[in-house]
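Operator note (shift B, R.M.): manual run for DUF1825 domain-containing protein requested after the automated queue skipped it. Running by hand, logging everything below so the morning shift can see what happened. Input copied straight from the record, untouched. If output looks odd, do not overwrite the archive copy; leave it for review.
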Amino acid sequence: MGFFDSDIIQQEAKLLFDDYQALIKLGNGYGKFDREGKKLFIEQMEAMMERYRIFMKRFELSEDFMAQMTMEQLKTQLGQFGVTPQQMFDQMEMTLQRMKAELEKQK
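Run finished. Output pasted below as returned.
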């Protein structure tokens, strides 16, 4: 069975995508959140990034041709912006850390 033929992979991909889209939509109002709302949003984004990192690692470790091609396509697309997948995750982590630091200043 191919990597993308797995019901678990398909369900997880859909859930990850749907959750990410919902968080991004919610994040449009981040500036209007109270302190606790901002804290919760940051925590949810951190959890989302961890889920995404694990999902990507599955692609990376899979011997399935389509999974490997997907990873190569991602690397190529990110490379057009001068970024590797690791740098993408590092940048997201730095952004979340800055958001946390800004939140701490508001105490």
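Quick read of the result: The mean pLDDT is 92. The radius of gyration is 16 Å.
Leaving this for review. - R.M.
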